[in-house]
Description:
By secondary structure, the protein is of the alpha/beta class. Helix content is 34%, strand content 23%.
Amino acid sequence: MTAVSPPAALGQLSLFELITDYPGHFLRVKRTMIDLSHAIEEAAARTAQPGWLFAGFQRFSLFRSEAQRYARLAAALRGCYIFGVPDVAPPELPGITALALPQESPLCREWFVVVDGPDFATALLSADVTGDALPDPMRRFMGIWSADPTLVRAASTRLCAALDLPTPDWQPNLGGTLAGYEAISNYVLALSEERWLTRRRRHQPAAGAVDEPLCT
């Protein structure tokens, strides 16, 4: 991994501002954001033609548990860039560039995963709306997960411009993107249902009690 100081333009960059007027914002807890991010990252590494992966970790210490998985992902990507406050030194991993952000950077308060490649493109853009006000598992993030090629390209263009990288010029493969989007949706839904069922098995209702539906 190469750890570098960010260009000046990156210190003022926000991706969340791209979606402030975008319809369909969600509010999700951290566990759901982790599941969704993992699914997006794995989908990006499975494509035949590799793309760029940009991921915001807020703080480098939050990357440590993901380091070995990212080392595997980076081998299948055109480029892999992570962003965060340098509260710890990031591990040295090939194919990954770590961008150290100043504390005042808007990106430090955002959770984002942006993939832009010829076969698959998607963007998870969100902002931390609780910060340190709640315990870590209870933190909430507001944002958008989208396969809209215009939004994805706007996010990747901002990042590439700030990092002095060539802007992606390929036309998005909408069929491949939608297939990946569907697979990710099904995966995250299955995880959520399995966790719900696990909790139910741990707390079986008393005999004769009425079970609660999975959804209402």
